[in-house]
Write a structure and sequence with these properties.
451 residues, Aspartate Aminotransferase, domain 2, 7-stranded mixed beta sheet, 2 domains, Aspartate Aminotransferase, domain 1, binds pyridoxal-5'-phosphate, 15 helices
Length: 451
C-alpha cells in the first residue's frame, strides 16, 4: 500500500473500509449473536450475568462446544495413524491450520498451535536465543504483557543479550515511539511489542514499528493476544516476522497460536524430540497437540465466518479469508460504539479515574478495554463487589506488570479492568456505571467506609 507508509496501524486499510459497512448494531442482530453463546444466558440472583472479563478470556459459541464434543465422540486419535479416526483427526488439524492462516492472512504452514501464547513465546525466544551472541540486543516495552517480556529477559541472563526498554507516556498510556527509535541500533536483533494493551486498550502503530525494526535488520515479535478479538489482523500488511495470539481470548478454546514467516520458522532450530518433523509447522508443535481444542477452534472460525457472511457484508461467494476479515471489521465497527459509550458512562462515575486514552476523538487508537481506580476503594474490593452484583471484571495487574509499576500502582492493588467484546450489550455499560456510581456514593450500603 504505497502512500501510507507512516500511518499508524489503526488507520483503516482499503480492505477494511470495503467491509466496514457491516456491524452488529441493531438489537435483533445482537440478540441473534448472543443466542450463539450459551454462557450469556446465565442467570445470577434473578438477573443476567454480565461478562466484562473478556480480556481474561471470552465465552465460546455453540459451534465451538459442538466441535469439541464431536471430535471426542468421533475423531479422537493421535497423529499419523494408518486408520480412519487418525486420518479424520489429521484432516481436522490440517483444516484448522488453514482456517487460522485465513484469520491472520498467512499460509497454513506458517501457523503452529501450542499450549498458550506464553509457552509458544518461550519456545521461539529460546530458539532465537541460540543464534544470539553476548552484546546482541532485544527491545521490549513497558506497555506489554509480561509474556512478551520475561522470555526475552531470560536471554539476558543466559546469553548476555542486552535488553533495551521502551517506556510509556503516562498521561495516555501510549508507547514512547521516539524512545523506541532511539533504542534501535546495529546490534538490535528482535523488537518484541504488543498490538494492543491488555490493560488500558492502547493500540500500537505496529506497521510503523515493524518498518523501524526492519530498517536496522531486526526481527519483530508481535503479541496480538489482546488485539485478536477486536480487529482484523493481516500479517502480510504488518510484515511482522512473528505474531502470536490466544484463541481463548477470541471466542475459542484454551490454546496458543503462532504465526511465523515461513523462512523464519525454517531457519531457526526448534527444541523438539528427534522423531518429530523438522519442518514447519510440526517442528514447533511440541508433543501431542490438543486435538479437541483445535477442533473447537475450527468451530470458532466457523462462527466468525457465519458472522462475516450474516452481518459483515461478506456474501456467500466470499472466501473464508474474506468472510473472517468481514466479521472482524464488523466487530471493530460495533465495538467503536461500545467504546464511545463506555468512555462517556465511566467518565460520569464520581471518583473514578480512567487511565489510557480517554479523548473520544482518539477512539480509533484503542480497543474497548478500560482500566480505572475508584476513590476510597481497593481494586480487589471493587471487583469483589461487582462480582457479587453479577458483573465479572478483573483487578490487579493482569500481568501488565511493567505498566502497573510505571503508573505507580503496584503497591495499591493495580486497577480494575473491564473489557467489552462484540457480544456485550450497551445496557451492560449503563448497568456497570450505575453500580459503580452507587458504590462510589458515601451512603452506599457496600461502601468500604461503612464496613
Ligand atoms: C496481551 C497478552 N499477551 C499475552 C498473554 C498470555 O497469553 P496466554 O495465556 O495464552 O499465555 C495474555 C493473557 O492474558 C495477554 O492478555
Amino acid at each position: 500500500m504505497p502512500g501510507d507508509r507512516h500511518l499508524p496501524a489503526h488507520s483503516a486499510s482499503s480492505r477494511e473500509t470495503a467491509t466496514s459497512a457491516g456491524s452488529i448494531g441493531t438489537r435483533e442482530a445482537l440478540a441473534t449473536v448472543r443466542a450463539q453463546f450459551p454462557a450469556l444466558s446465565r442467570q445470577y440472583r434473578g438477573g443476567v450475568y454480565s461478562y466484562l472479563d473478556g480480556p481474561g478470556g471470552t465465552q465460546v459459541p455453540r459451534r465451538t462446544i459442538g466441535a469439541i464434543a464431536g471430535y471426542l465422540e468421533r475423531s479422537n486419535a493421535n497423529h499419523d495413524g494408518a486408520f480412519p479416526t487418525s486420518e479424520e483427526s489429521d484432516a481436522i488439524l490440517a483444516e484448522a491450520h488453514g482456517a487460522a492462516a485465513d484469520f491472520v492472512g498467512a499460509r497454513p504452514d506458517e501457523i503452529a498451535f501450542g499450549q498458550n501464547m506464553t509457552s509458544l513465546t518461550f519456545a521461539v525466544s529460546r530458539a532465537i536465543g541460540r543464534t544470539l551472541r553476548a552484546g546482541d540486543e532485544v527491545v521490549v516495552t513497558r506497555l506489554d504483557h509480561d509474556a512478551n517480556i520475561a522470555p526475552w529477559l531470560a536471554l539476558e541472563e543466559e546469553r548476555g543479550v542486552v535488553v533495551r526498554w521502551v517506556g510509556i507516556r503516562a498521561a495516555d498510556c501510549t508507547l514512547d515511539l521516539a524512545g523506541l527509535e532511539r533504542s534501535l541500533g546495529p546490534r538490535t536483533r528482535v523488537v518484541a511489542v504488543g498490538l494492543a494493551s491488555n490493560a488500558v486498550g492502547t493500540i500500537n502503530p505496529i506497521r510503523h514499528i515493524v518498518e523501524m525494526a526492519h530498517s536496522v535488520g531486526a526481527w519483530t515479535y508481535v503479541d496480538a493476544v489482546h488485539a485478536a478479538p477486536h480487529r482484523p489482523i493481516d500479517v502480510a500488511e504488518l510484515d511482522t516476522d512473528f505474531l502470536v495470539c490466544s484463541p481463548y481470548k477470541f471466542f475459542g478454546p484454551h490454546l496458543g497460536l503462532l504465526y511465523g514467516k515461513r523462512e523464519r520458522l525454517e531457519q531457526l532450530a526448534a527444541y523438539r524430540v528427534r522423531p518429530a518433523p523438522d519442518v514447519p509447522p510440526g517442528k514447533w508443535e511440541t508433543g501431542t497437540l490438543p486435538g479437541e481444542a483445535i477442533a473447537g477452534l475450527l468451530g470458532t472460525f466457523g462462527y466468525l465466518e457465519w458472522l462475516g457472511r450474516t452481518f459483515g457484508g461478506a456474501g456467500d461467494a466470499a472466501t473464508r479469508r474474506e468472510a473472517l476479515a468481514a466479521a472482524m471489521a464488523a466487530i471493530r465497527v460495533t465495538e467503536r460504539g461500545l467504546a464511545l459509550r463506555a468512555l462517556a458512562a465511566l467518565g460520569g462515575v464520581p471518583g473514578l479515574r480512567l487511565r489510557g486514552i480517554v479523548d473520544p476523538t482518539r477512539i480509533d487508537e484503542r480497543v474497548p478495554t478500560f482500566a480505572f481506580t475508584l476513590a476510597g476503594w481497593k481494586p480487589r474490593d471493587v471487583a469483589g463487589e461487582l462480582g457479587r452484583r453479577g458483573i465479572a471484571v478483573w483487578d490487579g495487574d493482569y500481568y501488565a506488570f511493567e505498566l502497573i509499576r510505571a503508573l505507580g500502582l503496584a503497591d495499591s492493588g493495580g486497577m480494575v479492568r473491564v473489557g467489552f467484546v462484540h457480544y456485550n450489550e450497551p445496557d451492560e455499560i449503563e448497568r456497570l456505571a450505575e453500580e459503580l456510581s452507587e458504590m462510589a456514593s458515601p451512603t452506599a450500603a457496600h461502601s468500604p467506609a461503612r464496613r
